[in-house]
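hey can u check if this looks right to u? its 300 residues, i copy pasted from the old doc so theres a chance i mangled smth
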Amino acid sequence: MPNKMKILIAYDGSRDADAALLDLQRAGLPRHVTAHVLSVQAEWLPAPASYGGVETGFTKYVQQGEQEALALARQARATVKATFPEWEVHAEAATGSPGRLIAQRAQELDVDLIVVGAQGHSTLGRIFLGSVSQKVLHTAHRSVRIARGRLEEPKTTIRLLVGIDGSPGSAAAIKAITQRHWPAHSEARIVNGFPILPSLGNEMTAATWAEWIAEEKARIDAVIEKASGSLRGVGLTVSVNKSEEDARQLLLNEAERWGADCIFVGAQGLGAFERLLGSVSSFVATHAHCSVEIVQESKE
């Protein structure tokens, strides 16, 4: 029997954190999961327990904050358990830097996926999510789902957008989708953005570029065909959008036009132009209006 999927859910009691819990229902997650809900009492600048021999009351303040954080984690655990009764769900709390602690706990638990809301302001009165999601994305070395819940009827078709460029990262994104359990009639759309290159004056250089572009497009076509077959193999209806456009903007625009539930991208790569254009995964995670799952390559 395969190992259970392990998930770490960061929760701060905010509207976006609640939306992230709701989003779990449309993430294709298996019936048997071990989930850990972590709430953090954010402590950015630790204060001393005493000053000049006089107690500051800070220790009591931290203890109270951590108790409140644990209450939030337990609240979220109850919500998750009600939605996924077969899951094994744990609740825990910590005090410190949220981004660092989430990444650290994910490493300790060796989770497969971290779920975090896109924005947030905790009922503890501290900023928790938002920039924290970017911190987690860049330091956790785990797949991260930055969740933005959408008001959808339970039976609305699930739509998944996946960025493909032939890199190991995009292959990992396809694999992650095929390992999930999607309801009937779910759809996947493969997107490939190939930037428009500037005209080159030197005929020899232009010819070399033209040959490279033709080879690259042929390679991408083969990758898309293989990915389409993999996605159809798990029952998804598949469509493709290829365009000579910045991959980052194409993914965002297509997600809006198509009404995607989630964009899947690899944590590394998206094309030979990543160094020129900047990180596709980070840009999409920051600017998308739907959930975004940034997939790390398999640890195996």
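Residues 59 and 93 are 16 Å apart (CA to CA).
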